[in-house]
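Sample 3 of the quickstart, ligand LTMAUQNL:
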Amino acid sequence: MGVAVIKLKNPPVNSLSLEVLTEFVISLEKLENDKTFRGVIVTSDCPGIFSAGLDLTEMCGKSQAHYAEYWRAVQELWLRLYLSNLVLIAAINGVSPAGGCLMSLTCDYRVLADNPKYNMGLNETLLGIVAPSWFKDTLVNTVGHRTAERALQLGLLFPPAEALRVGMVDQVVPEDQVHSTALSVMAQWLAVPDHARQLTKNLMRKPTADRLVKQRDADIQYFLRFISRDSIQKSLRVYLDKLRQKKG
Ligand SMILES: CC/C=C\C/C=C\C/C=C\C/C=C/C(=O)SCCNC(=O)CCNC(=O)[C@H](O)C(C)(C)COP(=O)(O)OP(=O)(O)OC[C@H]1O[C@@H](n2cnc3c(N)ncnc32)[C@H](O)[C@@H]1OP(=O)(O)O
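Result:
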């Protein structure tokens, strides 16, 4: 039925490095241009981890030029996913904080494995950083304003039952059924004529995407100013050190 699977593979935690973001956009573009494909299942090849989100090492101790290049790549992936003409289904087979969660929120439907460790949410505030407005918009469009407001301020990571309750995911299923469920949901979405579904998706999503498109450069400048602050760099270093020390 013309369904591709994109499996994220950047061990150990599928962090969204510049290289991963770039490759993801290229793969998506190829699938968009190949008319034999109508749908994509986005999943992970790293056991227990869907994606650890944006790669913190790309946002810490690097040059301004690097931050700008990285942020443009983050914007590009979000825009491509959010406005994709393909049916995108996230088969979430692991934990998905921040950028990992965002990626799944751009999909048309989310199936999450029922494992209490597989938390998801936009936890940026816990790192001492702030989810950008378009991250916030994506969450609001999924779970509504009040739930998003509380989740964003507290940096909440929702376990599967809670994620389902607030509407962050559409289905929670046993871990060994995530892929088959994604496939059967895909069949249901592909039963709808493409042109009607695509125009409807565009109608729902374009106003949100346009807000970023209209101010992409300003958004990059804003990110540069924010991420270059000493206090923000310090927060990120402390957070990364904590992650590294966990093992020791
Ligand atoms: C007004 C606003 C204006 C502008 C906006 C400005 C700023 C906002 C910018 C960006 C928004 C940010 C979005 C993000 O996505 S930030 C990333 C958030 N991610 C997390 O908090 C997850 C962190 N990781 C974890 O919690 C765990 O690693 C995880 C549960 C995923 C897996 O645990 P596990 O025990 O299996 O592995 P670890 O031992 O913890 O990690 C292994 C290895 O990987 C490194 N690691 C983990 N996560 C990341 C990451 N996101 N980026 C880079 N590296 C990561 C970890 O340090 C370990 O490294 P090492 O010790 O060297 O092996």
